[in-house]
Design goal:
Elements: H1 4-9, H2 21-27, E1 32-40, E2 43-56, E3 59-68, H3 71-75, E4 79-89, E5 92-103, E6 108-116, E7 121-125, E8 131-134, E9 140-141, H4 145-154, E10 159-165, E11 170-185, E12 188-197, E13 204-208, E14 218-221, E15 227-236
Parallel strand pairs: 9-10
Antiparallel strand pairs: 1-2, 1-15, 2-3, 3-4, 4-5, 5-6, 6-7, 7-8, 10-11, 11-12, 12-13, 13-14, 14-15
Length: 238
């Protein structure tokens, strides 16, 4: 199997907002750049760069750019980009738009998602005509779920349920802390909390050092080619 599915599913930018200006000032997200090594079967095949930066009008932009650098991923010229723009509302994060694009020598794919909070409608378009369904408060997208989990852990939560906009509907995805492990990645050694998806989909495991970084230090996904992402570096600012 090729590594392309992980390029659609990983990454990590969801933020927990606060209603008062004092709380917002104390907890507003800081821009960052996190670089990951993407591996398959123990062999490095690519690099993912996750960034968070302010987008103006009280919104933030969270992007994940992944590039195949060796093996089949490089041979296919496999590259993907996911970009989410989201807002703060009623003490909760909400996606405004999500864009995904994957380009390879043999295949290209894209998806655009808009959330109209005036009409509470989600529109998803993959180039074959738009699909619409109702939004729910606190709606996020698949690009930002790992970041959402990290922020929940930093706040002391041991489980989290996320309403995620997928292709045809809102899917509630649940995650829980399943243990603590010592994890060694290129960025260093961490005492990490292991998080697993606890609903029907069991193909997600991520390790966090939440008091240090809001994104995973390691992420593994058993479907889509058994790919692993390991943190190489984390830099504040953009």
């Amino acid at each position: 199997m090729t590594p392309l599915p992980i390029l659609r599913t990983f990454a990590a930018g969801l933020l927990l907002a606060f209603s008062t200006s004092a709380a917002l000032a104390a907890t507003a997200p800081a821009p960052f750049t996190a670089t990951y090594q993407v591996s398959q079967g123990g062999q490095a095949i690519g690099q993912a760069v996750v960034t968070l930066k302010p987008a103006g009008d009280g919104q933030w932009e969270y992007s994940n750019q992944t590039k195949g650098t060796s093996g089949l991923a490089a041979a296919l010229g496999a590259n993907s980009n996911e970009t989410t723009r989201f807002r703060w509302n009623n003490n909760a994060p909400e996606t405004v738009s999500y864009d995904y694009r994957m380009d390879a020598a043999i295949k290209s794919k894209q998806r655009h998602t808009d959330v109209n909070w005036s009409t509470n409608q989600v529109t998803v378009d993959e180039g074959k005509g738009p699909m619409n369904y109702a939004s729910v408060p606190g709606l996020v997208d698949r690009n930002t779920a790992p970041y959402a989990i990290g922020l929940a852990l930093r706040d002391g939560k041991q489980s989290v349920a996320l309403p995620v906009a997928v292709k045809r509907n809102v899917e509630t995805q649940t995650f829980k802390v399943a243990g603590k492990d010592t994890v060694k990645v290129p960025a260093g050694s961490f005492q990490a909390e292991r998080v697993e998806r606890s609903d029907d989909n069991k193909a997600f495991s991520a390790w966090y050092a939440p008091q240090k970084y809001p994104v995973p230090v390691k992420l593994a996904q058993s479907d889509g080619g058994n790919l692993t992402l390991e943190l190489v570096s984390y830099k504040n600012g953009h």
